[in-house]
Amino acid sequence: MLEFYRNFLKRLSFIGTDWTLSLLHAGSYLNIDDILASNERTSCRVRVLLPSLAPLLLSDVKDKILSEGIDDGYKASDDVPVGKSIELPVWLAIAVGSGRRQILSIDVPPIYRNAFTEVFEADPCVVDLKRKGSMYYMLLCNLLMSGHVRVPQIVATGTKVFQSRLKMIMDASLNASRQDTLSSTSKFDSLEMALFRIGQTDRLQFERWISRHHEKIEALRTVRHVLVK
If you average pLDDT over residues 23-48, what whole number do you get? Predict the structure, then answer.
């Protein structure tokens, strides 16, 4: 049974290697990359009154309760008022804000807003995704379910970013030496880093094959025996 689950996990992601590449399985329950991406926080604005949830959702109220001690009595200050801006993990914001009631209005993370869109339109390769959005592509897949009005534009921008940066990833994986690897990958997000490592591994295997250090081509034993005679 343990072996079954181990093989099942390997099919969901590149578990057991030094990278993960599981964009095709975005949204899967056991997808570690998807869990990390959807746990990124984004700002939301409350559209209906949320009674007694301020201690849970608002850090300033939570800190005040901890400093004053536990009080089980109801207080109006424990309610989250309409129009209040809060930060939630993306998975929770989508679950609460994209339903029929739409309790929240979801704002997209900063990397997907107009300021970065203009930079991406000019030159996608200059953006440091490792620092600004380390799970850029996987988080984009999660935002598809948010119903946000900017989703079509975000998808178009993300497609252009990937197409433009893919050439940079291929050049780095095929040409970067061990000394150049750190500088070549300093701006890559997690998916780009995975593609880089896959390309670099394949290049090294090909070089070993060319130099006959890997999967050597040898004559069959019967052929060698005939040649000796």
Answer: 79
